[in-house]
Amino acid sequence: MSKPPKPVVALDMPKSEEALNDSQSRYLEVCEEKLGFVPNVLKAYAWHATKFDGFTRLYNDLMLGPSGLTKLEREMIAVVVSSTNHCYYCLTAHGAAVRKLSGDPILGEQMVMNYRTADLTPKLRAALDFAYALTKNPIEIDEPDRQALRDAGWSDREIWDIAAVAAFFNMSNRMSAATDKQPNDEYHSMGR
């Protein structure tokens, strides 16, 4: 006997408070077309058009917008932050993205379990160490931490992007924990 699927989140959010507009509904349709499913994170925000818009705009800017960081590097930062926070949803979703983008399922698992076991360039290792430190002990971040990134080859603009991606996923991890957001089953088999 199979169990009924868990709800996307543990909160019963009102569906009609501020309905998605046509553009936002089309965004969900495009996800379905491209991925074969709508990520549960989007379903979780779909109860309120303004919140959905804020989340998707910031995510798209940070993860897909112009940056000196590659898409894979941004996904690796997301996974390091989510691993530090033990965020099941984001580890599942963004671990799958690392596997898919890198074509390396071992790298994806290393990022999820312990990024320090991966064979990384010193430059990338410095970025991930910074994301980890910013997540674990933000009060301790100081100029020597930023200088270490510069010394590794990151520009100040790229340091901004590293910090912004890390900060976004800290917020997202906390929302996932607070709402018990569940990852889509499809993520588990991606990039393997």
Tell me the name of the CATH homologous superfamily of the largest domain: AhpD-like
* Text of the CATH class of the largest domain: Mainly Alpha
Pick out the low-confidence regions: none
Structural class: mainly alpha
Radius of gyration: 17 Å
Proportion of beta-strand residues: under 5%
What characterizes the major β-sheet? none
Fraction of residues in H or I helices:
55-70%
CATH topology of the largest domain: AhpD-like
User: Judging from the principal axes of the Cα atoms, what is the shape?
Assistant: globular
Task: Calculate the terminal CA-CA distance, rounded to whole Å.
Answer: 28 Å
| Total DSSP E strands | 0
Give the overall pLDDT as a whole number: 94
The total number of structural domains is 2
Number of helical segments with 4 or more residues? 9
Encode the helix/strand succession as letters: HHHHHHHHH
Topology:
Blueprint: H1 22-35, H2 40-45, H3 49-64, H4 71-85, H5 88-102, H6 105-113, H7 122-136, H8 143-152, H9 156-179
Helix pairs in contact: 3-9, 4-5, 4-7, 4-9, 5-6, 7-8, 7-9
Q: How would you portray this structure in words?
A:
With 192 residues, the chain is mainly alpha-helical. It folds into two domains: 22-64, Single alpha-helices involved in coiled-coils or other helix-helix interfaces (Up-down Bundle); 71-189, AhpD-like (Up-down Bundle). 65% of the residues lie in helices and 0% in strands. The protein has helices at residues 22-35, 40-45, 49-64, 71-85, 88-102, 105-113, 122-136, 143-152, 156-179. The mean pLDDT is 94.
